[in-house]
Design a protein that fits this description.
Elements: E1 7-12, H1 19-32, E2 37-41, H2 47-57, H3 66-90, E3 94-98, H4 101-110, H5 116-126, E4 133-138, H6 141-149, H7 163-179, E5 184-188, H8 193-208
Parallel strand pairs: 1-3, 1-4, 2-3, 4-5
Helix pairs in contact: 1-8, 2-3, 3-4, 3-5, 4-5, 4-7, 6-7
The chain binds adenosine-5'-diphosphate and thymidine-5'-diphosphate.
Length: 209
C-alpha cells in the first residue's frame, strides 16, 4: 500500500445478513477512535449511482436481463469509484462500503446462468479495483430472507427471487471467500448485533495494525 493511501473495506453477504447494521457500527467505532471514515454503499454511493440504484432495485424481478443488469451495476460502480471511493482513498480515509464487485460476481455472475466470465472481463475493463479487506457476514439463508422481508421497502426485486437464490448466493460467497482468501474474513452473522460487531472490530483492528 502506498504511503498516505487510505484503506478500502467492503462488506458482503446475502440480503438481510446485517451488512448495513454492521457497516454503520464499524464506521462509528472507527470514528470514535479517531479515524477519518467514509461510509458508503452499492448500488449507489454517488449521485448518479443512486439514480441507477432505483432502476435496478425496484420493479418486477424480470425487468432486466442479467446482461443489462450487469451493465447498469457496472455503470453505477464506475461513477461511485470515480466520485466517492478514489478521492477518499487518495485523501487517506478509510472507506467502508456495503457491497462491491463481489456482489456482482455473485448476483449477476451466478444467479441466472453462468455469466461469471463476462462479469470478470467487464470488471477488469471498467473497474479494476479490489478492496484491501472484505468482511463476509455469513448467515442462514432463511433467517436472512425473513429479516430482509421484514424491512418493507420498495427495493425488493432481488428479495422476490426467494429462498432458492439466497441459498445459492450464500454458497457462492463462501466459495468466493476461498478463492480470494487473502482479503476475505468470515464472520458468523447468526448472532446478536453486538457480538457480531465485536468480532468485526477485532478483525479490522488486526488488519489496521
Ligand atoms: P443487510 O444490509 O445485510 O440486508 P441489515 O443490516 O439491513 O442487513 O439487517 C436486516 C434486518 O435485520 C434489519 O431490520 C436489522 O435491524 C436486522 N438485524 C441486523 N442484524 C441483526 C442481528 N444480529 N440480529 C437480529 N436482527 C438483526
Ligand atoms: P442492498 O441494498 O445491499 O440490499 P440488502 O440490504 O438487502 O442486502 O443491495 C440490494 C440488492 O442488490 C441485493 O439483493 C444484491 C443486489 N446487487 C446485485 O445484484 N449486484 C451488485 O453488484 C450489487 C452491489 C448489489
Amino acid at each position: 500500500m502506498k504511503k498516505n493511501e487510505g484503506v478500502f473495506i467492503t462488506f458482503e453477504g446475502i440480503d438481510g445478513s446485517g451488512k448495513s447494521t454492521q457497516t454503520r457500527l464499524l464506521a462509528e467505532h472507527l470514528m470514535d477512535i479517531g479515524h477519518d471514515v467514509v461510509l458508503t454503499r452499492e448500488p449507489g454511493g454517488s449521485k448518479g449511482a443512486e439514480e441507477i440504484r432505483a432502476l435496478v432495485l425496484e420493479g418486477d424481478p424480470d425487468r432486466w436481463s442479467a446482461e443489462t443488469e450487469l451493465l447498469l451495476f457496472t455503470a453505477a460502480r464506475r461513477d461511485h469509484l470515480e466520485r466517492t471511493i478514489e478521492p477518499a482513498l487518495a485523501n487517506g480515509q478509510i472507506v467502508i462500503c456495503d457491497r462491491f464487485a463481489d456482489s456482482t460476481r455473485m448476483y449477476q455472475g451466478l444467479s441466472r446462468g453462468n455469466l461469471r466470465n463476462k462479469v470478470d472481463q467487464l470488471h477488469a475493463l471498467m473497474i479494476g479495483k479490489e478492496p484491501d479487506l472484505t468482511i463476509l457476514v455469513d448467515m442462514d439463508p432463511a433467517l436472512g430472507l425473513a429479516r430482509a422481508k421484514g424491512r418493507q421497502t420498495k427495493e425488493e426485486r432481488f428479495e422476490d427471487f426467494g429462498l432458492e437464490l439466497q441459498n445459492k448466493m450464500r454458497q457462492g460467497f463462501l466459495d468466493l471467500a476461498r478463492q480470494y482468501d487473502q482479503r476475505f474474513r468470515l464472520v458468523d452473522g447468526n448472532r446478536a448485533v453486538d457480538e457480531v460487531a465485536k468480532d468485526i472490530s477485532k478483525v479490522v483492528s488486526d488488519f489496521l495494525t
